[in-house]
Amino acid sequence: MYNLLKGKRGIIFGALDENSIAWKTAERVHEEGGVFVLSNSPASIRMGSIMQLAQKTDSKVIAADATSVADLENLVDQAMEIIGGKIDFVLHSIGMSVNVRKGNHYTNQNYEYTEKAWNVSAVSFHKVMQVLYKKDAMNEWGSIVALSYMAAQRVFPDYNDMADNKAYLESIARSFGYFFGRDKKVRVNTISQSPTATKAGQGVKGFDGFIAFADKMAPLGNASALDCANYTVSMFSDLTKMVTLQNLLHDGGFSNMGVSQQVMEMFE
Ligand SMILES: NC(=O)c1ccc[n+]([C@@H]2O[C@H](COP(=O)([O-])OP(=O)(O)OC[C@H]3O[C@@H](n4cnc5c(N)ncnc54)[C@H](O)[C@@H]3O)[C@@H](O)[C@H]2O)c1
């Protein structure tokens, strides 16, 4: 390990179980010397195994529904007290679609569900940043990362309304990133990750098919949750301090492929 995050403090949202990308990130940040508070919704704290992660990484868990500004304000205040100062890094690793869960087709959405998913998966990122910004809770040269998926730019039919939410999320990163950069020297980026076998990932219809397809298309194969954690660690470190307003493709090269030989062979 490289001690890349020694002396840095943060908040990590979205560790549900050991498959979660946020879980792997918390483990890697801990190994690199960073200290942090873990957060998730009250229901996910009850259902998941975040307490084990807290024990393993010597960190505290603070419940917050990421759609509630009051919860986020409480979280940020408490986090600064617990970790003993302002914040250097934040991971937003939150996503959920009720239409996906209920199996509603993209052309047959229940708009109450659509709005809920938009609020949880996209607007929550704005809320997290607005609370941090107003409280002046970030240290200069801090780094904020949210996780996205390439369905923000290209059509993946079964990704459903999450495609639209990811497009909105990436736009928030750019728009808020401008003000955070200009006013506080804080950088904001999204990492667009390969399909990954997690609770949220596996909830998408046809997931087994498209994770296998992406793996055969990408010259390096799919990036794992651990690979994503490592990339995020580098984005939290001082080695990437001039990178901001970017959607960073972390997909083994998938996004620049037209077709691969392995996929061609299936049709020949
Ligand atoms: N798994 C994939 O294939 C994949 C690919 C690209 C991007 N992503 C993104 O990575 C992020 C993390 O997902 P994951 O794959 O690790 O799955 P996951 O199911 O482990 O994590 C999703 C998290 O969102 C949290 N969450 C849901 N509603 C919330 C709320 N109201 N308040 C606070 N937290 C809430 C859940 O409790 C859970 O911890 C998501 O943004 C997801 O869209 C996943």
TrEMBL record:
Its EC number is 1.3.1.9. Keywords: Fatty acid biosynthesis, Fatty acid metabolism, Lipid biosynthesis, Lipid metabolism, Oxidoreductase. GO terms for molecular function: enoyl-[acyl-carrier-protein] reductase (NADH) activity. One of its GO terms (biological process) is fatty acid biosynthetic process. InterPro entries: Enoyl-ACP_Rdtase_NADH (IPR014358), NAD(P)-bd_dom_sf (IPR036291), SDR_fam (IPR002347). Pathway: Lipid metabolism; fatty acid biosynthesis. Belongs to the short-chain dehydrogenases/reductases (SDR) family. FabI subfamily. This is enoyl-[acyl-carrier-protein] reductase (NADH).
